[in-house]
Fold Glucans biosynthesis protein G.
Amino acid sequence: MTLARLFGVLSLGVCLVSGAPLWAKETGVVEPVPSEGAPGTFTFAAVVRRAQELAAAPYQPDRPPLPDYLSNLDYDHYRDIRFNRDQSIWKTEGLPFQMHLFPRGFLHLDRVTINIVEDGATHPILFRHDLFDYGKNQVPDEMPEDLGFAGFRLHYPLNRDTVFDEVIVFLGASYFRAVAKDLNYGITARGLAIDTGLPTREEFPVFREFWVFKPTPDAVDITVFALLDSESVTGAYSFVIRPGMEAVIDVKARVFMRKPVQKIGIAPLTSMFFHGETTDRFIDDFRPEVHDSDGLLVINGTGERIWRPLVNPVGLRVSDFVAENPRAFGLFQRDRDFGHYEDLEAHYQNRPSAIVEPLGDWGRGMIELVEIPSTAERYDNIVAYWIPERAPTAGDELKFEYRLRFGRDLEAGLLGGRTLATRIGAAGTDILDSHQRKFVVDFVGPTLAQLAPETQVEGVVTSTTGELSKPVVQWNPHIQGWRLFFELKPDGNRPADLRAFLRHGDDVLSETWSFRWVRE
């Protein structure tokens, strides 16, 4: 089980600063006091200063030893530890948000400080054992008093006015996941990705301290500040979280480099794709599809929409989408048909999509998609993030802001055609040829649905290698859309990067479908 899946499942834009690099200054002990704003008011600037001064010193994880009865817990036993709902933060105050806490244990070894900000002042939440019900776990009556927390989650009356549902959880490294109305947890976000998809060890920064602002009685959002720390970076993060039909999170971050890294991923998203319509090898599973997300959407700086269906590859795949000031990128679950999953427990049709919308000037760089071979659905094997064109070095500061949205239909109002499904199989009709591949791509959308079935819709298909058959486009009445067929005769074992879109005359009717075919 990967870190992303373990850390998240217990629910329980960018540019380098212009001019010369900004080097962290060497100072004394950092106190959590404001550096700007009204006297006595805790502000984001205080967290930024903490991050700057941490960056000037060597990394020191806050990971005091745990008793064996907590550090040796497996997944199921850790999950059996439950927060005492009667102890919910703000439960008796009639506020629109409540907070639950997670104890350290299992893989969650870092001690995380959690503060409440009220009337401009900060107050740490003190660890108490009566905050938790340890279930069937064998723990002594007397335990150390300073075991500490691993993370927290926020609750809000999302689906019913009388029930406080989970809306977001921060647990493990810099992972966090949110859920929207009538959906289940699925895709996960994190603060930063470092050296992902490389032969070397990936680095996982940690949110080591949080400041949660006490909401007002009529609040519709809640603010959380976080302090990021790792061997190579420190950072100050601000999250303004608004639950609802969509969970909307406005993220602001300032990251300070302790030392250079090979690759830094901004606004990373992590998901799972075990098998689905793009899987052209046998998976012995009664369920037709198993995935949290089925595709990557990229909207580049020119407004072109690119859709890349996800795969569970035999070998590691890394794909880059070069862009300047991208408008958005995200991992989507477009397929909402229960019959395509047939899972009465996981309900993959109700997993949220998530999209990153950069704010400000992110400059040149690329969106990178990493697809990792996986043997089970418990592994998160899909990662997407933004990489700036210039790699930061020691002493650099990065500033970026973006809006992160989780929801069922994040493309509501889109008129143009979008990819609904991608299917791959042997070429031919009567006699199949498994050495050549047939691609069948379904497009839907309001504009496509309004076209008469006899409209001459053209499929434009290109490939970097191999030979393509003439594409065929047909009206598909079952989806009120259009189906594109074409076949690829590969050039031996050379991979082929395929692109396709629909047009009518000079009018482009759809987003660009993009796929990397690899013989496996």
Summary: The helical segments are 3-9, 44-55, 68-71, 75-79, 446-449.
